[in-house]
Input
Amino acid sequence: MSAYIDDFPEEAAVIRAAFWSSFVALAIGAFFGLIQTLHRTDIVRIFDSTDYYTILTAHGVFMVITFTIFFLVGVFTWAVTTSLDRGVESLRFTWSWYLLMSLGTVFTAIPILAGFVDSIDMSADVLFTFYAPLQAHPLFYIGLTMFVIGTWLAGADWFRSWWAWKSENPSERIPLPTFMVLTTMIMWYIATLGIAVSILAFLLPWSLGLVETVNPLLTRTLFWYFGHPVVYFWLMPAYLMWYTLLPKFAGGRLFSDPLARVVFVLFLLLSTPVGIHHQYLDPGISEGFKFIAMTNTMFLLLPSLLTAFTVVASIEHGARQRGGEGYFAWLGALPWREPAFTGMALAGLMFAAGGFSGMINAGMNINYLIHNTLWVPGHFHLTVGTAVALTFMAGAYWLMPQVTGKPLASKPIALFQTVLWFVGMTFMSNAMHRAGLLGIPRRTAEPQYEGFEFQAAVGSVAELDAQVAIGGTLLFVSAVLFLWNMLITSFNRPTETLPSNVIPEPLSGSDDSPAVLDNLKLWTLIAIVLVVLAYSLPLASIVDRGGLFGPGGDAFPVRLSPTLVAQLLVDTVQEGLR
Amino acid sequence: MASETSKRELGHDDFDPIGTLALIALYFLLLVFLWLFMYFVEFLGNEPTVVGLI
Amino acid sequence: MNIHTYEKLWLVGAMLLIVGFIATVTYGAVGVGVTMIDDSEETIDPTQLDEDERFSEPRVEQVGENEYDVYVVARQFMFQPDPIEVPAGSDVTFYVTSADVIHSFSVAGTNVNTMVIPGEVSTMTVEFDEPGEYGIVCNEYCGSGHHAMEAMLIVQPEDEFELEEGEN
Output
C-alpha cells in the first residue's frame, strides 16, 4: 500500500516532466484563449485582427497537441507501470522519447510565435489544420514530425513493457489499463500514417521548395484521416481515468471489465475509417463516400454510449456502497467534496452534452447548417476542452501527489477550480452553439461583417458575445488556479500519508472477458482492413481527378510584408475588374 | 478511499444499477427530442437548402 | 461474458438511436431532396482561371426560364461577382472555385454552404422562393484578411430583376 513514487521513483520523474510540459502548454494556450475570446467579441483588443490567426494557431497547437498529448504520455506511463507492476525497460529510452517530443514542440512553436514579430521572416499562421496551399515555415512541419515520432517511440516503450511482462506471465490476461494503452496506441499508429504521408511526401518537400505544388484536397483528406482519430487519442486517456480512477474515487469498482475491453476494441476499429465526415461539404468527394463515412461515424457512437452506462454504473456502485438509495437520491451520496471526483464527474456530464452536438456534426446533410460555424468550436470545447481537459486537471489532483510524493496544495481551491471550469464552459459553449446556428463562422477575428449583420431569433448577438467573453474569462481564471495549485504542490513538503496507488478490481472481472478480446493482432488486422475499405476508393478518386501533386496552384506563405499584401490586393482587384 | 467511507460491501450479484438505467433513460429521451428538434426545426426550417438538379 | 440486463437494454437503445439518426439523414436526402456537394465537376488549374470559359468572367447567367447559373470565384479576400443578384422564384446553380487557397462560400442564415478548394469546383442548386438579402461569408480561414472576406446575395422580386449584360 504505497504511493506511485515509492514504487517507481525513476518513472515518476519522467511522468512529472511530461505533466509539466503539458501544463506549460496549457498556460500558453489558456493565455491565448483569453486574448481570443476578448478580441473576437470586440471587448478588449491588444492585437490587430490580422494577428488573430497567429494567436489562434498557437492556441490550437499548444492545447490539442502539446497539452493533451504530453499529459497522455504521462498518464499512459503511469497506467502501464502501475498495472503491470514493473518499471520501464530502459529509462534512457523513455527519456529519449520525452526529449524528442519536447524538441519537436519547440521547433513547431518557433515559427508559430515568430509570426508575432514582423522583422523575422518566418511564420506558421496555418492553424492546427495547416490546409495547403497555406504554407508554414519548414520548421513547423519538421517539429510536428519529431513530436509524432516521439509518440511512436513512447508507444514502443509501452509495448516493450508488455512483451517483457507477458514472457514472465504467459497465461495471464492483459491488465485492463495496459490493454487500454495498447489498443489506443495501435489506433494512433494507424491514424498517424495519414499525417506522416501528408507531411513527409507532400507538405515538407513543398515548403522546402523541392516540389512545386500539392493537391490541396489530397493533403486535406490525409489530414482528416488523422484528424478524427486524433480526437480519440485525446479522449482515450480521459476514458482510461474514467474506467480506472473514477470508480475508485466514487468508492466503488468498475462495473464490467469485459465491456471496457469491448469499448476500446471498438475505438481501435472505428476511429479512423470516419475522417471524411469532416469533409461532408468538400467538392471532389462523392456523396456515396460521404454516406459511408457517416454510417461508420454513427456506429462509433456505440463505444461512447456504452461507456456512459458502464462508468455511471461504476459510480453508482460507489454511491450504493456509501449508503446511497433511490433512483436519483444516490447521487447525493457521492464524494462531491473531492476535486478529483467532482472534476471528472462534471467532465463526464459535459461530454454527454458534447456527445449530442457531435451526433449533429455526424449527420451528413445537417452539416449545411453547422459546418465551420461557431457551433463546431462550441462542440469541441465540450469534448476536448472539457471532457478531456477537465478530466486531466481532475486526474492531476490525484496523480501529481502520486508522482511527487507531495500532498495537493489546496483541495478547496481545486474543487472551486473544477466547478469554475464547468460554469465557464457552460456559458461559452452554449453561446457558441447558438451563434453557430445563426451562421456566425468559426476561425474569424471579427464578430460582425461590414455589409450585413447576423440576426438572433432569440436573444441577441451582443448577448451571445457577452456570454462567450464571460465564459472564456472564467475558463482562464480556472486554468490559472489549476496551474497555481500544481506549482505550489510541487514545492510542498513530501508526506507519508498519500493514498495508495491501487486500482480496485472490477465487479465483473477479466476472467469473464472472452480471450479473443486480448488478441491484439486480430483487431489490428481488422482495423487495417476497415481503413483500406473506407479510404482506398476516395483517395484513389482524389488522386485520379487532381493528380498526386494537384492540378496546379501557388503556395501561400501566410506572413507577407505589408507592401506585398498591398500589391496582392491591388493585383486581385485589377484582376477582378479586367 | 473506498474502505474509509464505505458503509457496506456490494458484490456483483447484489448490485443492480437501477439509478444508472433511470439516468440513461432520461438521456435517451433528451437525445431523441433534441435530434428531432435540430433536424426538423433548425435545419429543415433554415431554408433555402441545397437541393438536387430538377 | 455476462452483460447486465440493464446494459443490454441500453445497448438496444443505443442501436435504435444510431439507426434512427442514419434514417433521418437518409430521409433528408431521399425525401426532402437535400443533396451533398460532390465530385461531379472536373478539376481546374486555379492559376489559369483567366483561361476558363466559366470563371474568366464570374457572372450570373440565365440558362432556362426560371433557371440561372452563377459562376463564383473566391480569392483572398473577396468573392466575384459581388453582389450576386438573382430573381425570386428561380432555381439557381452555383459553381464556385478558388483562385488561391481553401475558402468557403456560405450564405449566412441559410443552408447554402460549401467548401471551396483550389483545383475543385463546388456546385449546388438552390431554390430561391422569396426576395431577400443575404450576407455571404468565407468560413474557412484563408489568410490574415479572412475576416474581411464577404459579399452579398440579393434575391430580387421577380418583376424587378434584370440581368445586366457583361455583369461581373
